[in-house]
Amino acid sequence: MFCPRCGIKSLQKCSEKEFVCGCGFHYFQNVASAVMVALCWQDEVLVAVRGRAPGKGLLDLPGGFVDPGESLEEALVRELKEELGLDLGREVPRYVGSFANVYPYDDVVYHTSDTVFILELAHKPAVVAADDVAACEWRKLADLSPTEFAFRSTGMAIGQLQRW
């Protein structure tokens, strides 16, 4: 791999997360933060059908990566606007938990920590699939199988929600 400091193809892997170059440059591949939310109305949850790889055509919960300078909550609000055209207003999602995950994209495997929130809605909102969401479906939480989801972390989150 090429070193971003000196430009020479000399970046060597020292461990699962550490890379070094002879010029003294050190790079640590740290975990990326991501968020997702279970939008619940009565006994249903809104699931997204992924419109892009990885996992194109499989289910997911609305959410995505946290941008630099964002909190988890700010990222969640932004992602809901981008993916569904949904504005949370004053509603505050509750923290459920977090799960380690991997996100393979463009020949790079990103290790993520996926934070899960839940928001129990008083009414079923109108949503419009956008960004990387191909479609949205309201499904009964009890009928969902963790194997329908693109990512292990999302399947684990669904399993945890079903046990509540």
Characterization of the model:
By secondary structure, this protein is α+β, with helices and mostly antiparallel strands. The protein has two helices and ten strands, in the order βββββββαβββα. It has helices spanning 72-84, 152-163, and strands at 12-13, 18-20, 26-28, 32-41, 44-50, 59-60, 63-65, 94-105, 108-120, 133-140. The strands form two sheets. Strands 4, 5, 6, 7, 8, 9 and 10 form a seven-stranded mixed beta sheet that branches. A three-stranded antiparallel beta sheet has the order 1-2-3, with no helix packed on it. The model has no long low-confidence stretch (mean pLDDT 94).
**Strand coverage percent:** 35-45%
* Helicity level: 10-25%
Distance between the termini: 46 Å
Number of strands: 10
Residue-averaged pLDDT: 94
Number of helices: 2
Principal-axes geometry comes out as: elongated
Q: Report low-confidence residues grouped into runs of 5 or more.
A: none
**Gyration radius over CA:** 18 Å
Helix-strand topology string:
EEEEEEEHEEEH
**Biggest sheet details:** 7 strands, mixed
Structural class: alpha+beta
